[in-house]
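Form 7-S
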Amino acid sequence: MKNLAIALFVCAAVIGSTAAFADDGSDVTVNVSLVPLQSGSLPTSVTTYGMVVPSHKARLNLSAPIAAKVSDVEVREGEIVDKGSPLVTLVPSPSSRAAYKQAKLALKVANHLLERSRSLAKAHLETASQLAQDEKTAEDAKSTLEALQEEGASGPNTLKAPFRAIIMKINANSGTFVSQGDNVIELAKPEGLVFKTGVVPELAAQIKNGDDATITPFSGSGTFHGKVILAGSVVDPQNGLVPIEISLPDSSMLTGEMGKVVINTGVRNGYVVPHDAVLLNTSGQTYIVQSINNVAKIVPVTVITSKDDNDLVEGKLVADAPVVGAGNYQLDNGTKMKAVNELRSAKKSSGSNVPPPLTGYGAASAGDDSSGKGGK
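Output:
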């Protein structure tokens, strides 16, 4: 009986202490720090990678004017040459030489017939229409011969640089034969270089002509500033990207040099929160936790951009309810919490527009719940 009395006494003591603990408000399970939710803005940008290439307008292909044999190649790929510099010498092929000889003979015959027609017409033995026809035949033969001479069919023909140029590609070697119209050599103007890149269609919609851009070569040779001169509107079927071209200062980078470019696309408005307030659930959805009367409310958000330690987000947030910072990863919907700090504002980023901290918060609905949670 004595032992039973002792046991009953201990149980009563435990129950009493538990009731006293509950009455003291110890059902708050998580200690957290809170940050006021603030409307603001941050600059937005698109970061991508690319390389230096000649612009479309700066390119020129020199083609073979006639069927010919490449006699000499005077330049090398990557070389910069002055205007008028010899590039490639072509020697007429047997067929081109034969065409030239035939044209010379045709002109000789046409001139002979024309002289005869003029003599007959003077003696009134030939009509004016026949004379006119012979004159046209002689003129056509002359034009054909002159065209072949200009194309180089009369002898060796040297292709020369029409402007100061970079030798981009040589498509024929000494001793090879080329057909009329074949691309022999590709040129580019040194002052016509651009930084070419590509972005997915979703990001392309944010970029417009005239946007400022900062290019950082992988070589570590500094940074260069340009502007978007081509914001494409068609997806390249070869890579699925929308082409973007950035202007370059003269002589800043070399053709083929690769690097990173950051394109400034403007300023976006939303809510500015500390980066550590944004979490990622198991479904890949970003979310933040708000405090509604010291009860956790999970709110899905979209991160628009980030700068320094702040994120700019959009979502169905309660404008006067604070955001949970430290301790947020422990919370589910409905978890009670206790703030262990005075409300502090998000760190202000350079170039951002973050208003002063809010002082009050209420208990309105925070919007849709997210499914699941996890750490970011």
